[in-house]
Amino acid sequence: MALQNITSPHAHGPLTTAKVMRRLLLATLPGVVALTWFFGPGTLVNIAWSCLLALGCEALVMTLRRRPVGFYLKDCSALVTATLLAIAMPPYSPWWLILVGVASSIVVAKHLYGGLGYNPFNPAMVGYVVLLISFPVEMTRWAAPLGGGATVTPGLLQALQACFNPATFDALTMATPLDLFKQHGDLTVTELWLQYPHFGRWSGVGWEWANLGFLAGGLWLLYLRIFTWHAPLAMLAALALMSALFYQGGNPGGAGSPWFHLLGGATMFGAFFIVTDPVTSAVSTTGRLIYGALIGVLIFVIRVWGNYPDAVAFAVLIMNFAAPFIDNYTQPTVYGHKRDGGSKP
Amino acid sequence: MRKIRDFHGGVHPPENKAQSLHGPIRPAGIPPQLIIPLSQSYGSGAVALVEPGQHVAKGEQIARAEGLSGVPEHAPSSGRVAAIEERSIAHPSGLPATCIVLDTDGRDEWIAHHGAEDFRQLEPAALLDLIRNAGISGMGGAGFPAAVKLSVNPANRIETLIINGTECEPYITADQALMRECSVEIIGGAEILAHLLGAKETLIGVEDNKPKGIAALRRAAQGSAIEIVSFPAKYPSGGEKQLIEMLTGKQVPSNGLPADIQVVCQNTSTTLAVYRAVHQGEPLLSRVTTVTGEAVTRPGNYEILNGTPIDWLLQQVGFRQEHCSRLIMGGPMMGFTVTNVAAPITKTSTCLLASTETELPSPPPAQPCIRCGFCSEACPVKLLPQQLYWFARGKEYEKLEDHHLFDCIECGACSYVCPSNIPLVQYYRAGKAQILELRDEHERAERSRVRFEARQERIEKIALARQEKRAQRKAAAEQRAREAGGDGSEQDLIQAAIARSRARRKEQTR
Prior knowledge:
The complex is a heterodimer.
Chain A: H1 17-27, H2 29-39, H3 42-64, H4 69-73, H5 77-88, H6 95-111, H7 123-134, H8 136-139, E1 142-143, H9 156-164, E2 173-174, H10 177-183, H11 189-195, H12 207-223, H13 230-245, H14 258-262, H15 267-274, H16 285-305, H17 312-329
Antiparallel strand pairs in A: 1-2
Chain B: E1 26-27, E2 33-37, E3 46-48, E4 55-56, E5 61-65, E6 73-74, E7 79-88, E8 96-104, H1 124-133, H2 146-150, E9 160-164, H3 174-181, H4 183-197, E10 201-207, H5 211-220, E11 227-231, H6 240-248, E12 263-267, H7 268-280, E13 286-292, E14 300-305, H8 310-316, E15 324-329, E16 336-337, E17 351-356, H9 374-378, H10 385-393, H11 397-402, H12 413-417, H13 424-483, H14 490-509
């Protein structure tokens, strides 16, 4: 056998990019189960259809770019983007809506910028924002949760029907708690809770459990050291701090309790699955603290004073812009250098 | 108990040390031919003192050190010098080097030698000479001449001498085996070094995965002031900078030396070589090297003569050539591959790893970097390897330097954890080389610019001087013409010149 001539290191650790991506997919499971329990199988159909489309888009672009299709499909990054987008979209979305979202994510946000690792913006969030701006009606129509407006959730067949033959599907939909909260500024929090049964314990029936599910998945990923705690914790802490500052004791015009914000909307999903996207975030630990905290602040600002009920996608995209800038100022102090960056005499 | 500080990052690759620790250290024997490269160390190398055909005894000096940072060479066994010529050596560059080729006679006859009676009576300078003349270079892998490292600027009073017995690279067990079998001599060597440096404290740092080595050293160190410090195994704790940080809490300044913070480090094998040089008067002729990997049937630690050809050595340990995919000099994290098995083992060869394809699989094609940050979590120097990778690919040299590329110790922890299989260290090495080349080019351009400007100035000066002379001459001629009664016009000048030349001719013909 001819002896290989390779530079060091010769040993390699067990982790691969595909494994990282698969663990990420697995970690969405508790949250997806909670969503499915409360809102029916709409999310599952979203995910299945979105993944199929994403693989198709990825293969198409790779063929056009004359790259080995199989090699790039195997890294599972398209599946992660598709799954995250599908989770963010309302359950029972029509097929074309998902198609537009996936195409924006994979073709525009990912590959037009150079493909995996080169995209400055989080692809799933680009897809989501394109849809939210272009199809606001479809994107804000959430199914009523089980025990919070609905007594049964649609079955799998109905869910498929909703996706592929949307004209014939009619389900009970209602505004999300974040939406309601925004539109009822003249009621105190207690009154609001009494009036709407689906506010649940803290932040809406179903929503709080979905958030706890994504929190659990995120903690598992933290345990596996897929990402560090800095960005998600900074985001949650900033959001909690902002909502505590502006809570005003639940009076009208107040902004909802920290619990409401932490376990409502896409908070936990955003903290552990979107903010942690390494490609589009800041790199150093200090950088990630700043990046996460500013996203937390922006989420609160847009939720409370902006035009959209939820804000994770906008906040993340805005901070994606800032990531290279943050990187520039947050280099860690390298061994043998003083804190000011200069080397010791 | 000494407080052990942790250093940033680090990895835990499979140790694979048990394979080579089964038996005691065995002598590899005397090969029929020894190939001794004249540039084994970091420094300026050596100059041959022998002629082809000459007979040499074991331990006889065959090459003298060139310059201050060179290391002399000695005949590892008795025999006849066959040639002094270019031979292929085990070096990352793959370039050949001038070697003394020695045909051994198998008699292994020593030259007369004796050790110092009491090293404590010797001046540091005399001890340093002993070490320098014994041809000892750092045996941990880099091969920095020991005497150079030990000649510390007197302004830096050495506080701490650290003997590096960490051996954090997977597979390598040579130092561990030496600790088990030669602990007394290692402690003795440490005492010599401590005396030489006037160190206030002497520490021997060992990873806690070598309990037998630690126990042996502790037994041998009883009654001395030497402290054996063990700490949890983590690669690269054996990196000099990392070890110093762990044991003293101090960081070696960037671009600086350990001596700048009053610390000197020496490797265990080097310490042992110092002991033998001082107490027995033996120059460094052999070393213990770990020969291991799935492609050898008798892995273990072997006492190998300096210059032993790798192919001969592999025959002795049951090499299964058909299974070997990679032959690595050093460990799997920082070692380099050897493709020519005729190359010799040298003073810096810690390990020879003959691995199979299943043991160390060929690297799969690299995937895109997703900036996951595993590399920056693993970097012991706290660099941002993912950023360096982008800058290296984009040839953004200023950014590379700004992100401290030159502080990279090339330990390979980043590549080890990279899920996308990117050969990061390779990019950094290339980046460093390119920057150095650019600096060199810049320097040369600067030099020739200065030269050019100086020349330009010179030419102008000469031209100016000529002009001035001409003007002076003209003025003088006019003066003469006027004195001759003319009005100083062009005509008069010509007439005057003709008259002068006539007068001269007359003078000559007379």
